[in-house]
Amino acid sequence: MARLTIEALSKYFGDQAALKNVSMQVEDGEFVAVLGPSGCGKTTMLRLVAGFDAVSEGKIAIGDRIVSGPGTHLPPEERRMGIVFQSYALWPHMDVEENVAYALKVQKVATVERAARVARALETVGLTSFRNRRPASLSGGQRQRVALARCLAMQPEIVLLDEPLANLDVHLRASMEDEFATFHKRTGTTMFYITHDQAEAMALADRIAVMDHGRILQFAPPSQLYREPANETVARFIGAGMILPGKLAGEPANGRVAVDILGHRAVIRCGPDHGAQGPVKICVRAQDLAVDRQASDPLSARLRRLVYQGGHFQADLLLENAENLPLALTLPEPCEVAPGDLLPIVLRDGWVVPQTDVLA
Amino acid sequence: MMLGRVRPGLFRQDQITLILLVLLVLALSVAPLVRLVGEAIAPGGTFSTAALQRAWNSPIVWVALRNSLETSFGATILAMMFGGVVALAVTLTDLRARNAFVFVFVMPLIIAPQVMALAWLQISGPSSALLNLLGLAPPLGTKNPLYSREGIILLLAVEYSPLVFLTLRAGLRALPRELIEAGLASGASKFTVVRTIILPLMTPSLVAGMALVFVSCLGNFGVPAFLGIPGNYLTLPTLIYQRLSGLGPGVLSEVAVLSMFIGSIAIIGILVQDIMLRRRDFRVATTSIAARAFELGRWRLPVEITLWAVTLFVVIMPILGLLATALVPAYGVPLNAKSATSQNFAYVIFEHAASRRALVNSFTLSAVAALIVTGISVLLAYFLVWRKSALLRWLSIAAEMPYALPGVVLSIACILLFLKPLPVLGFSIYNTVWILLIAYLARFLVLGLRPVISGYHQMDRAIEEAAQVAGAGFLRRLVTIILPVVAPVAAAGAILVFLTAFNELTLSALLWSSGTETLGVVVFSFEQGGESTAAAAVSILTILVTIGLALSTLLFHHKLPQGVLPWRD
């Protein structure tokens, strides 16, 4: 059993809180990504889970075994976790094979089995022919594959990945993502993946925990994060969401509700138990907005800039109404409008953000 | 707030190691100095200012103090000019054969000061072949002009110009090229850029170099011992030496006061540097690319010839003079194909008992000290770099002290600490080889420590964490992961320690006893006894070993961080 339980976890550095009362549960075999900007506490969390740092409050359990908690701290060398580091952390004085075999040697795995496991791991990541090379003579992608093979050979209960793609070229990332996904499928290992890149998190994870300022803002599957952000910060962070002020203009029914946004009426999605009256925040994305010259009550926005993005334009607009809010939408090519034009904008879709904000 | 404890009641390997290291540094670095201060203000355990007053009222102490300050200030100014100009020329311009030049220029730093002084004596006296050739030799029977205040200043400047050179060069290398290029782009000439941009930004390096040279001159024993004692020009270190060797341990509380004296001046020098640097902001945004060299154009060859000529004259010529003395049967006999002999070398290696012992002693002591220091350094640097804490910061300062303070301070402190029989063990290590070893360990610890620290800084800590995750405990990680990676810097540190210990005189001059002579002591007593040819022969041997070892590092220098080996550019 390798369920990872994090309960009421806090970490202070001096009087600075890096993590504040964080709880989450990663199920056995689940792929969870922790997503957030730098300084949000995600690296602190990884180091606590790995055992490099002691927790200040709360506890961490792997399966039924408490590894960190009040009065307990199991050192990293006894946690049996695999870690894939951002810097790969390959041992420069050992060749690829020795790197992969190291943990097995430490754990006194018998020579025959060790050789077999190392060979299998190298084969899985496609590096068999590189087994006698030193890390210095490998490319970035190959080094990360060695790091992965090192994990694979260890057969750990949990694999922690610390921004493993951050040092790689863009074109290498896709193939490494694929590698991680395959690894997860083959081994069924619980994966705990730290990243600041939402595309990466979305592509790989079963669930994503969005973090900021040492707290978890939302912990949900990727599509739910995108379609139903729990709060304004998540709405803005994921998929470049825009927040518009609005008022409920009817009773929610079947997950939809009529809203009034600065005089424009639209029917959009909302949570099942959304009953609040009065002002609400509405999350819309570029593809939810459209230019509609027939609309009776459109939002009126002035086009400031067109950015050509190959096949379509991104249009940056400013709402003309008192608020002067920026809006962005995509316009197909060819495009007949020019900067300075006043455009009638309507909402095709949107989401009523349930909470105002957790970060007060 | 309590952090989670590690399996309560059980000490882990790394904690035990750390405790042992703390105790070791306390014993080596802190205990002798505490004992020294204690002796100076409370000789024999009771507080008394008698020793202080005696020193205060002694005219000879004031003369020695004045001499120490005169020579130190004079040499500092001279070294700043010489080392500074060379650093600017070597770093900023397109000189050729830079590696070879740097190697020769910093040689005085690794050759013992007393050997350099002896070498200069060979080419400056009435019988100097060079001066006779030029018709400049002083008339026979007159005193060598180097036996003077000016001679000491000159030799100290030769010895420590490389220190200025190295600090300034490191500073210049960290200077972002944009700052220089922006100056040139604004229309300033190269000379104006040097004067108005580069030199002001180099204030920290210059001040640091100045303080370093001043403190080194103040503590130098070899140069004033060879050049000052014959003319009765005493500095504080040579005064302490004379008192102690003339009168024995009875004057210990008096020389303790003198050591405190010289130690305090050194500390003032370091503090002044600190204060001067705190007043202004010299931080520069750094880039990784070094500035493009200024092209000297048609001045390149003349500048190269000048620099080489001066350096060859200052460093190589005296050594050749020394070699000439080592090869003649008696002092003053001119060297030619007929007079050349190897009998001096045979004499010092095989015949002279003390000299023979000294070769063995110096080799063994230096090698053992280098090994132990390296061992301590690899462990200590691990904690200093990767487990930062307030305790460790103090520990690193403590480890620096015995090297930052003048060598005589440590010598006197060691005598005080080890004169009486050790508690529990019941015997005294004074007058044995062990007191020398302990003094070497204390003084040269930081020489081994610094390269290893810079090695750890260059290492990605994740490689240790990866081993930890793989299940390896502290000692296993140390042996299988860390040691192989820091091995090159540890080796460099070991060589630095060996070379410095091998060439040292300051500690052994006060701590040696019959049977535990070192090479420095033997050269000193040969020269004092008028056996200049034997002194020259021993000196040439030490130079050969020193340069040979320094050159051997070229085999693995590409694995070292920049700045670890002073002689490697």
How do the helices and strands follow one another from N- to C-terminus of chain B?
HHHHHHHHHHHHHHHHHHHHHHHHH
Report the CATH superfamily of one domain in chain B: MetI-like
Average pLDDT score of chain A: 89
What amount of the residues of chain B lies in strands?
under 5%
Rounded radius of gyration of chain B (Å): 25 Å
Classified by CATH, the class of one domain in chain B is Mainly Alpha
Radius of gyration of chain A equals: 25 Å
Helix content of chain B: over 70%
Highlighted features:
heterodimer, A: 360 residues, alpha+beta, Rossmann fold, six-stranded mixed sheet, five-stranded antiparallel sheet, 24% helix, B: mainly alpha, MetI-like fold
Write a short abstract of this structure:
The complex is a heterodimer of chains A (360) and B (569). Chain A has helices at residues 42-50, 96-106, 111-124, 140-154, 170-187, 198-204, 222-227, 232-237, and strands at residues 4-13, 16-26, 31-35, 57-62, 65-69, 72-73, 81-84, 158-162, 190-195, 207-212, 215-220, 242-248, 256-261, 264-269, 279-284, 289-291, 299-308, 312-319, 326-332, 342-347, 351-352. With 360 residues, chain A is an alpha+beta fold.
